[in-house]
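Attaching the record inline, Q. Sequence:
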Amino acid sequence: MLENYNNILLDIYIIIPFIFAFLFGIFSFIKNPIYIRRITKTIFSILFVFAFIILTGLEYTNFNIFKINVILNKFSSIFIFINAFIFLIFSIISKTFIQKSQKLFSCVLFLLFGLLNSIILFDNITIIFGSIFWIFLICFLLNSNYDKKNKNKLLYKLSKNITLLAFCSILIFYDFARLFILNQTPFNYSNIQENLYHINNTSALIGFLGFLLLIFKFFNFIPFDKNIISSNPLISNINIITNFTIGNILLYKTFIAFDYLFYNLEQYIIIFLLINFIWFIILSFRQDSLIKIFNSTLPVFIIINIFALFSFEEKGIQAYLYSTITTLISYLFLLTIFAILINKFKSDKIEDIYKIPSKSKILKLFIILTLLNLIKIPPLALFTSNLFNFIMIFSVDYDEIIMQIIPYILVFGSFAISVCALNIFNKVLIEPQNTLKNEIKLANHQTITALILTIAIIILGIYPQYFFNGSF
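Structure, as predicted:
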């Protein structure tokens, strides 16, 4: 009886966002943007409560919905809760940034939320790749609607994304998935590890590279590091957070399924990560745009998080999950606060940002907090997650001397990002010569959003224990 209740609750949670996206799309009488915004916030608030119940009250389970395997474990329950939290924040803060096409924005938000939940909960690789395909299309629709000047560039980017997805699918499905198809076995992540010994090593390696390429694309690693920045800062934030979330979900599932290949190819993967690590540190000091700076610093944190996995221990996976969540919430906070600034100054160029008046104490406080978190000041979230990551990284016993200096390179890179954050602090709060005449007053919904995110990074920094109890 209890298991049926769990399954029904999960079924409802998975289906609700698609139902509301459909209803918003077909009912033309809902036109008032205020009502649309209120309905959207209400639904995401309900979904957040659902996600909290799933996180705290549901037992871990495997079941089928529409003959598709759904897995609820510690990893998926945490991620669907964080996903619900993030999209609730997007629905609240959208009042500042979405002045037109509110219905389209709400539809897209529900669809993105539902598709991300599908990637988190569904085990079937075909369904996950189909969800990614639709996310590419929906993100193109969202970006092109709010950034018509870059429509041709966005269309070109969409074609590249679909081509890459098709190429990765060929690598995975051409020979690697053939065994599953011939034996009428569902092509699920959980089935890969059980059937790897039946599969030719070359086919397994090619399939693994297909997964890895797609992960690197979502992390914007070289050569996928060419981003089109939307003129709407909230849309840019949604793009960044969506890519980050998908990349980490795929990485976790791929690592669990192919842990032995990660171990065998450890040196090659590490060299590739180090090249990206150094590249993005250099890039973060050369950017003149706030969004570009944050786009350059995020991969540095991603790479440090990934290195925790190379301990190949349960604690390493726990450290990786914890640091992924803290990085996600920290950048959501960072991007939200600076999106408000960018919206105010109508530019994301650092040189266009005036000194904030001394009367704007609340805004200054939130800017200082988010930058202190990026600097990694205790007890904020990024400090604690970096601490756990480096504990795991320094516990790895590398064989080659050149590999033994890796932890020190990562520490140096982490310090460099702190210096970069101090530089932003100086250029935004201290250096500008011109001061705004009027006080920048935060609207109630902006203050509430920033306050919720502040509490989140403090709680994550002080109480990491939940992530280090139990297994995944």
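The two ends are 25 Å apart (CA to CA). Residues 220 and 226 are 8 Å apart (CA to CA).

More tomorrow.
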